[in-house]
Amino acid sequence: MKYVSADEAVRLVRSGDTVVCQGGTSVPVILQEALARRHAELEGVQIVCGFNVTAGEAPFCKPEYKDSFLVNSIFISGDQRKHIAAGYGTMTPAFLGEVPGLFRRGEIPVDVAFINCSLPDKDGYCSFGISADIAVSAVECARVVIAQVSPNIPYLYGKCHIHESKISAAVYCEEPPLGMVFGEPTPIEAAIGANVASQIPDGACLQIGVGGIPNAVLNGIKHHQHLGLHTEAMTDGVIRLIKEGVIDNSLKKVHPGVSVAALAIGSAPMYKFIDHNPTMEFFDVAYTNDPFLIAQNPRACAINSAIEVDLTGQICADSIGEMIFSSVGGQHDFMYGCALAEGGRTFIALPSRTAKGKAKIVPTLTPGAGVVTTRFQTQYVATEHGIVYLRGKSLAQRAKLLISIAHPDDREALEEAACKRFGYSFLRLKAE
């Protein structure tokens, strides 16, 4: 493979192009920095990004670059949030599993793909599976593929490879993927995790996210048996259960014996463990997040979180009022797919209050808030105060159940709101 400098590589980007950047912990920052250095030469370059984990703000997110680069996020992350909130960028709402289709149908055109990949194998194939999610389809559709190539990027299996002959320009670097280390769950997170874990059966096939609450759930199921993994994000927590034999994928119908994911987010030891590991396969999100594929695994369980939950079970997970904070991600894909599965279960896990003491179980969603999971889909909701099951329950019954797991200091106000909203149907239940 012939290598060039980053500045030379990004000269392949033209004004008016759409550039799709790989995300996760494998954001091609060196290429982004080189592109930002060309800001005076370029105009109207649209930059499409998904879920990003980086050490700072994206280099193209500067007000003075607003005519050079238009940031269009599919999942707003910390590296772009302030820029978009200030009106210099925007976001495109989409279920994550549908994003590859937007590329493939040309609804979001892809001119250039920026990726971060491994060294080529003996047959000339590089792996970019550490963030296969939207990168697979972007590479497939792009006119130009520009790659950071690093010996420190793990080589992963599945359908997440590109032959070196398809790379338009390669930049050699030794940048490892960004390491993410999560501490022990807080007491509140541990309580939430235990409540969720109590309803996960042996033999379940898991979709689980990243952070304190997911880690707490994983701690709570460490004595379960024959669990499977079909998820978006591979994390240190699931690796621990794989090493301990708790996750063995023995009862899965789709890829039995193999852990399936779209990206990996974790520590350096985790990246070393998954490197050339044939028991793990990585695919684009059109595959991992296909609800009808997810549903083929019995006892499929989806564990997700929320910003707010209203008394009818509506789940807001993408915005704080009118301010878009993230996006729908894969929550809907897995909530729907797991609900279709034989013995499937879905969970929304959240603390009863924010770190600033604001209630997260509320009478109605904050004006402008988006509904990611509808009240018609919500099954289990868990806080540190318990877990309740909403499917098949009336509006009044849902209100009573959700109030029971709200913060104790918020329950009186929630009851007053429920009385006004649901009238006698709620009063009768309250009296029971």
How would you describe this protein?
The chain is α/β, with parallel strands linked by helices and 432 residues long. It has two domains: 167 residues, Glutaconate Coenzyme A-transferase, CATH 3.40.1080; 245 residues, Acetyl-CoA hydrolase/transferase C-terminal domain (Glutaconate Coenzyme A-transferase, 3-Layer(aba) Sandwich), CATH 3.40.1080.20. Helices cover 26% and strands 20% of the residues. It contains 15 helices and 25 strands. It has a seven-stranded parallel β-sheet. Strands 12-11-17-22-24-25 form a six-stranded mixed β-sheet, sandwiched between helices. A three-stranded parallel β-sheet has the order 8-16-14, with no helix packed on it. Helix 7 links the parallel strand 11 and strand 12. Helix 13 runs antiparallel to helix 14. The longest helix has 12 residues. The protein is globular, with a radius of gyration of 22 Å. It starts with 5 loop residues before the first helix and ends with a helix. 54% of the residues are buried. The model has no long low-confidence stretch (mean pLDDT 95).
